[in-house]
Amino acid sequence: MTSKLPSYEPFALSAEQLREMTVRYAVNPLYLDNEEWLNEDNPFRRQLRPQVLPHLDFSTTLSRPEILDYSGLAAQRLLTSIYEADLMFLPKSGFAEKRADFAAFYSSSNRQLGELIRPALEQHVFGFLDEEVAVTGAWTKDSFRAFTERFETREPAGPLPAARAIRESTDPVRAAQMWLVQFAPDFLSEASPMIRNVLGYYGAVQSDWFKIIIDEYGYGVHDTKHSQLFERTLESVGLRSDAHHYWQFYLNSSLMMNNYFHFLGKNHENFFRYLGALYYTETTLVDFCESAIEVLTEVFGDTVDVRYFSEHVHIDVHHGRMALEKLIWPIIEQCGEGVIADIVRGFEEFQVLNEIADADFAAQIGWMDGGPANKALHEPVWAAISSGKVSAPVAHLVEPRGELSNTHLHDGDELCHIVSGTMRFVSGLNSYQILEAGQGTVIHRNRLHGAVIESEECVYEIHSVGDYRACLS
Amino acid sequence: MLVVTWSTDGAGNCVVLDGQPYVYARTTAGEFVLPAACPHRGGPLHLAALRPGTTRLVCPWHERATSVTRAVRAGVPAVRCGRRVTAVFDLPDSTPFTVEYRPLSDDLVGGRA
Q1: What residues in chain B have their Cβ under 8 A from chain A's Cβ atoms?
Q2: Average pLDDT over residues A325-350
Q3: What is the 3-state secondary structure (H, E, C) of A425-458?
């Protein structure tokens, strides 16, 4: 009988089908551009800029040097929305007016379309890890024990790269607020990706993993739930705590860090990689949180609520140990030494993502601080273009008052030149330059930005110069 | 056991443990920690090439063949992250080691042209 059956074909979309389905997913009214910078207590609204998606190719795998390019950001925004359709969100208030959005976000149509494109998007943004991390040889319990023992006895990491970026910023308060915003996608729905791993039936490890989750959820006492502690942190420094209020200000790498755990937790063939990444993150979070308390207190004084971080300094001493002793070792006993390679892989992969995120955040703070300097660079770069010394593709745009270019980034340097009118050019949370006729700014590659028109009309040009430094020589 | 981290390329691409040099090989058939000296007569395995159409690495001195498949599956346990490799050797953790440079054949750096 079986000889008459067709052979099994794994599911895959062609590049064209993928583009078509991605656009179809993202033109949902929930995902259209916003007329404001911030979302108002509506966790179902996420700006995906669907108008740009027909021009992107998600069927390829981004390399590490390309990972912060625009298609990476677009894919991470899409993936965040797709993964979070598995989670439960409600606004803090005004549900009745948002009920249509609630229904649309959790509709079977939205979820089905998301699921169709998800595997390709995951390959697009996480496929580079296949090249970046390779595990080889015969890993045994003894070699893995030696590997983890060296990690456990490592030298202290020192101050966080992000803490250094905040301290060195010309506006540490703004930089620290931008930093806290980056954690909102993770900390407000904290441990949700992890919970994907405790469903099902697989033995004693399942119950031990549940103990970590009980801690994350504050033992059922809402005020001690870790997300609640983080809400207090946000509010104590003047930030809002409704989910995705700051959607447009999430960096590519911040979404990448959170989505990585969803990627591993959603695809259970990555179960062992998740364990390795969990062990790394739970163990290093102690140093991270100590450093966070220091820098936040330095910047905001005693008014900042750092209980989220002090709780983790305490509990993650246990969670790091539990991840290794109660989850990883028993799983190796249960499944055999063959799973160690995947555990090591996840352990290393999350370090790669951390490095990318540290560099991305520091670069963004440098970009925000550099607003006046980038505005001043307009003059020599514009001179090179207007004199014909440099020739670059140009887009001519005319926009009315209030037109808001939702945040995005470019894959090369660009020059924004204002022909007439006024533009507020936004380079991060509470970071902007006012550009008048004849003025402009250099826009650095991979740096998040947006703009809003503040005159009746604004005529401007975007010159894709590639590398602005070539215009200065 | 001894855990060592070194670079896959550049000046410190070879770790010498107890007199035995090791490099990290990235071939079209897989990645692995490779003893840089052939176990036969000490030939320069770091300059070895793949026998065309096979996954056998051939020592340039006496053409002794090494199975890449076996090295990947059963060799020294290691993880490469970017250009950094960490390997666990079955040696006392007090074993002294140094890092130095060994040129690598094209077949050992991903089959570059």
Answers
A1: 1-3, 26, 30-33, 71-82, 86-88, 90, 93
A2: 97
A3: EEEECCEEEEECCCCEEEECCCCCEEEEECCCEE
Domain A371-471 CATH class label = mainly beta
Least confident of A174-178, A379-383, A437-441, B106-110: B106-110
Provide ipTM, 2 decimals.
0.94
Q: What is the pLDDT of residue B110?
A: 83
Mutate to test the interface with B, among A67, A133, A136, A354 (most CBs of B within 10 A): A136
Determine, for residues A137 and B75 on separate chains, whether the beta-carbon distance falls below 8 Å: yes
- Residue A95, token pair as written in the block: 């549900």
State mean pLDDT over A297-301.
97
**Averaged pLDDT for residues A361-375:** 98
Please tell me which of the candidates A133, A143, A351 has its beta carbon nearest to residue B88: A143
Q: Which domains does chain B show, CATH number per domain?
A: 2-108 (2.102.10.10)
Q: Do residue A146 and residue B30 have CB atoms under 8 angstroms apart?
A: no
Please indicate whether, in this complex, the C-beta atoms of B3 and A140 are within 8 angstroms of each other: no
Give residue-wise pLDDT tens across range A72-114: 999 999 999 999 999 999 999 999 999 999 999 999 999 999 9
Do A138 and B73 lie within an 8 Å CB cutoff? yes
Mean pLDDT rounded to a whole number for chain A: 95
Find the CB nearest A136 among B3, B30, B82.
B30
> Mind spelling out the 3-state secondary structure of A26-67?
HCCHHHCCCCCCCCCCCCCCCCCCCCCHHHCCCCCCCCHHHC
- Domain A136-369 sits in CATH at 1.20.910.10
Residues in chain A whose Cβ is within 8 Å of chain B: 64, 132-140, 142-147, 149-150, 340, 344-345, 348, 351-352
Contacts of B67 in chain A (CB under 8 A): none
Partners of B17 in the β-ladder: B20, B97
pTM: 0.95
- Could you give the angle at the alpha carbon of A191 between the alpha carbons of A150 and A159, nearest 5°? 45
Asked whether the beta carbons of residue A132 and residue B81 sit closer than 8 angstroms, the reply is: yes
Q: Return the bridge partners of A196, or none.
A: none
| pLDDT for the residue B78 | 98
Contact B33 A140 (CB under 8 A): no
Note down pLDDT in tens along chain B; length 113 residues.
999 999 999 999 999 999 999 999 999 999 999 999 999 899 999 999 999 999 999 999 998 999 999 999 999 999 999 999 999 999 999 999 999 999 999 999 985 43
Query: Would you list the domain boundaries of chain A?
Result: 15-126, 136-369, 371-471
- Burial class, B65, CB count within 10 angstroms (exposed 0-12 / middle 13-18 / buried 19+): middle
Cα dihedral A220/A221/A224/A227 (nearest 10): 60
Q: Residue A136 corresponds to which amino acid?
A: T
* Cβ–Cβ < 8 Å for A72, A252: yes
Q: Is there a contact between B78 and A136 if contact means CB atoms under 8 Å apart? A: yes
